[in-house]
Specification:
Blueprint lengths: L7 H10 L2 H22 L1 H15 L14 H20 L1 H29 L11 E9 L6 E4 L2 E2 H10 L4 E7 L3 E7 L2 E10 L3 H4 L4 E4 L9 E5 H8 L8 E4 L3 E9 L13 E4 H7 L1 H7 L6 E9 L5 H8 L8 E6 L2
Helix pairs in contact: 1-3, 2-3
Length: about 325
């Protein structure tokens, strides 16, 4: 199956049940609608819409006739059953409405419940390193009410502590800013987008699926990785490597990669660009002046990739006392 083609199994299902005289015409319309939706809303939404269309098309008038020997007696019997059933439905409209409505509502609830369970169960599993990804969280006793709290806003010295003292436990460690809303400008184009400033290891940690460029695109301070949807809505194409954009009309960066949008059931689904952490430091001089060694200044997040040979519980127990001055530090998998 080609990368940008509709879901293969549902396309085969459509070709199997559709009447041969209608197949080419309907399939052409389906493919045209799929391409339009893929450009407008992205491949995942286009795939979902394609599946819905195929299921709606599975109805009398479109389904191909049964081939081979037909038992005429059975055919007449089933036809008679349907006629009798239809007449009973019309004769008892109230009961029919209650029964059919109840069945429809029950099926709808079951389907929605299944979709919700699937959404929650598969959260963040889009990332190939899911089983080894974790976020650093601080737990302690609140001085205000004495209750226990969990926080994910970390200090800069803690990230340095993990890098210097626990390198054997982590394959990668990345400092990550909180979500930011920016105005991206290029020539006469302007667009609002959400993004993050991240460490160089972050794209490899989350196994970005690159359409253009590589995951190492954030090695240069004045660089940026943008999502496929942003590239198409902003420039009309994903062929935009080495184009220059300006962030908040302050700093110029060069596009060094285009990645596939993250699914909705992921931590970073709304992010449309990622910029280097070094650029974040250059724009916020106060960090170098008073935050690099200040254990009380919480302003960033820390994500880690645990070594494949290390057990999560073991790593968690070894680093949980990394910051005794404020509280205990624990590691939580991204779920």
């Amino acid at each position: 199956m080609k990368k940008n083609s509709p879901p293969k199994n549902f396309l085969r299902f459509f070709r199997w049940f559709c009447h041969p005289k209608l197949r080419d015409h309907i399939e052409g319309d389906l493919m045209e609608l799929y391409e339009e939706r893929k450009v407008k809303s992205g491949r995942r939404k286009a795939d979902l819409k394609f599946i819905v269309y195929v299921l709606f098309l599975f109805r009398p008038g479109i389904i191909r006739p049964t081939e081979g020997y037909k038992n005429l007696n059975n055919y007449g019997m089933f036809k008679s059953y349907f006629k009798i059933g239809w007449r009973n439905l019309l004769r008892n409209k109230g009961y029919s409405l209650i029964n059919i409505g109840g069945l429809a509502i029950g099926m709808m609830v079951a389907i929605l419940t299944g979709l919700w369970i699937w959404h929650e169960y598969s959260y963040d599993k889009y990332f190939a390193n899911y089983d080894h990804l974790a976020q650093v969280a601080e737990t302690g006793i609140s001085q205000r009410d004495g209750g226990r709290y969990v926080g994910t806003t970390m200090t800069y010295p803690l990230s340095t502590e993990l890098i210097d003292r626990y390198p054997q436990h982590f394959q990668r460690i990345a400092r990550v800013s909180w979500n930011i809303d920016c105005i991206l400008s290029s020539d006469n184009l302007n667009q609002s987008a959400k993004g993050l400033y991240v460490g160089d290891a972050f794209p490899e940690m989350l196994t970005f699926k690159m359409i253009q460029g590589t995951r190492a695109g954030l090695a240069n301070m004045n660089s940026i990785l943008v999502s496929e949807s942003l590239a198409k809505s902003f420039f009309g194409s994903t062929e935009i490597l080495n184009r220059t954009v300006r962030i908040n009309n302050k700093v110029d960066v060069t596009i060094t990669g285009v990645y596939e949008d993250f699914p909705l059931n992921t931590e970073f689904a709304e992010m449309r660009f990622f910029a280097p952490w070094s650029l974040f430091l250059s724009q916020n001089k106060w960090i170098e002046q008073r935050a690099l060694t200040d254990w009380r200044n919480h302003f960033l997040r820390i994500f880690v990739q645990i070594n494949p040979t290390a057990a999560f519980e073991s790593v968690n127990s070894k680093v949980k006392n990394a910051l005794l001055l404020i509280g205990q530090i624990s590691i939580h998998l991204l779920k």
